Amino acid sequence: MARPREFNIDDAIGKATEVFWTKGYQEASLPDLLEGMGLTRGSLYKAFTDKKTLFLLVLEHYEDRAVAAAQARLSDPGVADGRDRILSLFQASVAAATSGDHRGCLLCTAAAGAEMSDPEIAAAVQRGLQGIREGLETALRASPVHGAQEEAAIRALANVLLTQYIGLRVLARSQLSLGIVEHGVAGVARLLEMS
Amino acid sequence: MARPREFNIDDAIGKATEVFWTKGYQEASLPDLLEGMGLTRGSLYKAFTDKKTLFLLVLEHYEDRAVAAAQARLSDPGVADGRDRILSLFQASVAAATSGDHRGCLLCTAAAGAEMSDPEIAAAVQRGLQGIREGLETALRASPVHGAQEEAAIRALANVLLTQYIGLRVLARSQLSLGIVEHGVAGVARLLEMS
DNA sequence: CGTGTATTGTACCAATCAGTTCCGAACTGT
DNA sequence: ACAGTTCGGAACTGATTGGTACAATACACG
């Protein structure tokens, strides 16, 4: 017995994700969000309480979509060699950047921003990155070269790869013409050559 | 024949560097800078024109100090093996983070921020990172394992190391408890094991 | 010992920020 | 049709943003 909401919550979160992904948390102003989401202040605050709460939902959404997609890539049974799955992940990131998508990774951008001083945001970012690391570990276990290694060694290499991933996506977002992103896949390939 | 400036320009830039390094470009407000530099609005604008110009001077200052220090480490003739120089660079970064200095790297933080849309700032950040990359290449040429490799291979590995450096310093700043920074040196050591 | 000049500090500016309030409109269940 | 609610939209709040204008101040030079 009430007036129904005229917009779809999930759609709105999806659109908000786009805005935050493009501009970053702090830089995304409320007018930016309102325009991108196609609704007005009243509706936004009624539905999402405030900017930070909306961002937490966006981080969840990003985890469910982008992180899950990365994990799917990293555990794709269609690719037998886990190293190729990892290369495919980096390939996708590099391809996005070279084809004009300079949004980078929402989590990586957030990790470098001041919003990390908020414990709830930090926890959400941590969850997302942790998810990518787990995906990397899964893939490494499916590598003929690394699969047999002990757990600690796999974890160590996954850490290196995750760090590399963050660095690469920061560079992709920066638009710097250092020529690093373009050769990012080859770099990771070298990383995976070692025993 | 006029009233002399009551503060030292270089000192002020040094103090401004501290503020920007700690808070980031956007997040450092004018009051933050005024307090950190110990002067008032009038003096700051008279001496430095505006916030962005001050930041450009700060980037130069950072290049002259922090980047130069990194380069010195990476070409230290007292350390014969270039790999050890590289490890020493990462060691220093990790040590800073584990001992409570979570400022990370001014250039890396800037690279991940929205200020990169300004071409002058982007150019300055590019110069700084380029300097670190050159240092890494210098060190690699002094590595018994890599020194004999062709130029392209050295450049490729330097790119991987720079990306790793950026990722690591972003993580150091983020204060995330992923346990990656602590083992960052070991990760790089693995990276340098390969031929 | 003035006089000119640059620095300093303060008051101010418009713009923008996130967030609140409130009323008219719109829809549901009866 | 009506009562009960909730939504949508605009106007508004107070704080903060970077930047400016100007008057008081303090120094150097003649």
Automatic annotation (TrEMBL), chains A, B:
Superkingdom field: Bacteria
Presence of the UniProt keyword Acetylation in the record: no
Keywords: DNA-binding, Transcription, Transcription regulation
Protein name: TetR/AcrR family transcriptional regulator
Key word Membrane present: no
Signal peptide range: none
A Pfam cross-reference name: TetR_N
Matching InterPro entries: DNA-bd_HTH_TetR-type_CS, Homeodomain-like_sf, HTH_TetR, Tet_transcr_reg_TetR-rel_C_sf
SUPFAM superfamilies given in the database record: Homeodomain-like (SSF46689), Tetracyclin repressor-like, C-terminal domain (SSF48498)
Residue ranges of the annotated DNA-binding region, renumbered to this chain: 29-48
Record-annotated HTH tetR-type domain positions: 6-66
